[in-house]
Specification:
The protein is α+β, with helices and mostly antiparallel strands. Helix content is about 25%, strand content about 20%. It contains three helices and four strands. The longest helix has 9 residues.
Amino acid sequence: MEYTKKNGKFGKVLFYNNGFRRDTKVESGNPDIVARIFENYGRNSLIKRLQANRCEWCGAENVPLEIHHIRKLKDLSGRKQWEIAMIGRKRKTMALCIDCHDKLHAGKLD
């Protein structure tokens, strides 16, 4: 509730005239208009990186790629070069060729 001054007198202004009652009116709009729910569902960068067919570590092109994924960026210590690269990009995923991905899991990527 707010008090306002009009014509030299103070009056009350109510913001919620109907309280918090359920609105039972159904507005019938144009049913031919397509909903815009998919407007923001564009392709993300992971799909673009996979379609590039390029290893993000060694740069090999036209090779099958695998995605290396970590749970949280804060789990990375930043001691190895691939960890520094992921922290620098602020990404939890890295598209790697099969050889680089195997080396990463064996601890021999750096």
